[in-house]
Amino acid sequence: MKPFNKAEQLFYEALKNIKENLYTKAEEKLKKAKTLQPNRKSIILNLSSVLIKLNKLNEVNIFLDEVIKKNPADIDFLLNKVTILILEKKFFEGIKLLEQMQKVNPSMSEIYAKLANCYSSTGQTDIAFENYEKSFDLEPNHKTLSNLIFCLNFKTDFSKKKNLELLNKFNFFVPRINNTKHSCNKKNLEKINIGFVSGDLRYGHPVGNCMYDFLKILKKSFNLYAYYNNEADEKTTKDFEVLFIKWNNIEKESDEEVIKKIKQNKIDLLIDLSGHTDKNRLSVFANKPAFLQIAWCGYLNSTGISEIDYIIGDPHSTPKNENIQFTEKILQMPNIWCCYSMPEYKKLNIVLETPAIKKGIVTFGAFHQIKKINKQVINLWSKIISSIDKSILIIRTPELDNKITREKILYEFENMGLNKKKIILEGSTSKENLLSEYNKIDIFLDTFPYNGGSTSFECAFMGVPMLTLKGDRFLSRCGLSINTNLGMHEWIANDQEEYYKKAVKFSKNIDNLNLIRKNLHSKAINSPLFDSKKFAKDFEIIIKNLLFTHLK
After folding, report:
1. Helix (H, G, I), strand (E, B), or coil: what is residue 425?
2. Per-residue b/e over 39-64, b at no fewer than 16 CB within 10 Å?
3. Which residues share a beta bridge with 271?
4. Rounded to the nearest 5 degrees, what angle is found at the Cα of 10, between the Cα atoms of 6 and 14?
5. Cα distance between residue 250 and residue 199, in whole Å
6. Residues 428-470: pLDDT tens digits?
7. Per CATH, the architecture of 356-525 is what?
8. CA distance to 197, 263, 299, per residue, from 174 (Å)
9. Domain boundaries, the chain
10. How far is 540 from 222, CA to CA, in rounded Å?
11. N or C: which end of the chain has fewer CB within 10 A?
12. Does the pLDDT of residue 486 top 90, yes or no?
């Protein structure tokens, strides 16, 4: 066989492997094809993409840098380089490269979308929002709109009116390819088929952390089906896969294929766990493949999809008098919108004494994503720490692994008047070590307007009191709901001034902090925050009543 034909055969076999998520086999074939045709762009490009999928970032960096030296203006190779920089959390390097590409390609939508991603990940939400808007203007589509809607949630000047406008636009743009609606033909409600659509049902992700204990109980009452919109990774999903009658990996499947599977499985209730976050499949829900459809857990705001019937909240985070914010009807759980799975680490030590007793200083902590730590948050936290002589602030988040990100955050705090000696910046660590880090904290500070999620549950589990600011929408009221369910009403502030005064007041009463510390872990694990059995039972009753009502 001639070299060209052999290379062609290997290339197309590799493409088939890629479609089947068999990246190791695809890598082997593409490397052989490259030896036969070393300068063929399609082979080089797919090989770099496969190496990225296999997380062989060092190898692909060396390989791609050599290719870019020979092809410095090739936009496809440069975009793959940006993808690597984003995976390595080198967002500022990504911005620099993208801005260079933008000068040469000012009308390419993907450049603005990736710029928005980088700016968002470094906490520059307003600039990110502008770039998503430019990306959409150049290439209008529902996926960019979804990113734009998600980004809006982090803006300090969030507008409910603007949000509803974008949601209505998204509902218009999302493709609808199927007009056949699913009907529910149940003669009884003993065994209902429930489908969960998510790219996040895995170990270590906040959605997975919320769902795991709950699903272990729920599967006794319902037939559960998963539609997993992410790469197959047995290490992180194997414990979840056994909880479902069928685990469907849909990442490579079209909407038509996914809709067909859902209908074949005769799903009565389809639950979206992604909203406008990454890896969502809202376009599937727009085609109404199930009798009832619900948004929940992964995104705490409206989806805008008219075919999604309900959104799950609670009396504290989604009061029914504010249903105008949602295109869905509000379905309230009795106590809290979701239930967190109990962390299980044999060596985990929970310190029941507030650290200030021995250290003599009050340690504030914040383990949030950088994009939640906006300028208003930085300003307020700086004011708090500067006002308390013997105090420090520890911020820990994976984004701080990057030197430039650390320098930027430190500069912003110093610019607000905080002495850099009073702030400690820490990067990524294992989950078990992260939980142990709460033992160093006296007071945990919640972010606003986008509250913490898993961090708020975890600090309660570790017995650390959290100060939160009550906002005006779902994702700004997570802390309100959590603290209300803990009976920590005094730790809820109504505005920034009250947040400041409470932080200063609480820091002065070490004895009271110690008393809270002794009891909060026990209180938390016996509260609705971690009571998966009660949450599952409440969920079962609500869902069966809901279906019964709709079947009348």
Report:
1. strand
2. ebeebbbbbbbbbbbeeeeeebbebb
3. 196, 294
4. 170
5. 9
6. 999 999 999 999 999 999 999 999 999 999 999 999 999 999 9
7. 3-Layer(aba) Sandwich (3.40)
8. 17, 20, 18
9. 3-147, 192-342+534-551, 356-525
10. 8
11. C
12. yes
Chain segment 123-154, per-residue pLDDT in tens? 899 999 999 999 999 999 999 999 999 999 99
The gap between the terminal CA atoms of the chain, to the nearest Å, is 68
Q: What is the pLDDT of residue 189?
A: 63
Compute the distance between CA of residue 471 and CA of residue 478 in angstroms, rounded to an integer.
Answer: 9
Q: pTM for this one?
A: 0.93
Query: Helix H segments across 242-291?
Result: 255-264, 282-285
- What are residue 176's phi and psi, to 5 degrees? -115, 115
Instruction: In whole angstroms, give the CA distance from residue 456 to residue 466.
Output: 7
Cα gap 374→260, rounded to integer Å: 43
Q: Tokens 């300068």 appear where?
A: 39
Query: Other CB atoms closer than 10 Å to residue 419's CB: what's the count?
Result: 12
340 vs 525: CA distance, rounded Å: 10
**Class of CATH domain 3-147:** mainly alpha
CATH topology of domain 192-342+534-551: Rossmann fold (3.40.50)
pLDDT > 90 fraction of the chain, expressed in percent and rounded:
87
Phi–psi pair at 256, nearest 5 degrees: -60, -45
CB 416 within 8 A of CB 382: yes
Handedness of CA 321, 324, 329, 335 (dihedral sign): negative
Q: What is the mean pLDDT of residues 255-267?
A: 95
Kindly give, in sequence order, each residue whose CB lies less than 8 Å from that of residue 95, ignoring residues fewer than 6 positions away: 115, 118, 119, 122
pLDDT tens digit sequence for 229-247: 998 777 889 999 999 999 9
Q: Is residue 186 scored above 70 in pLDDT?
A: no
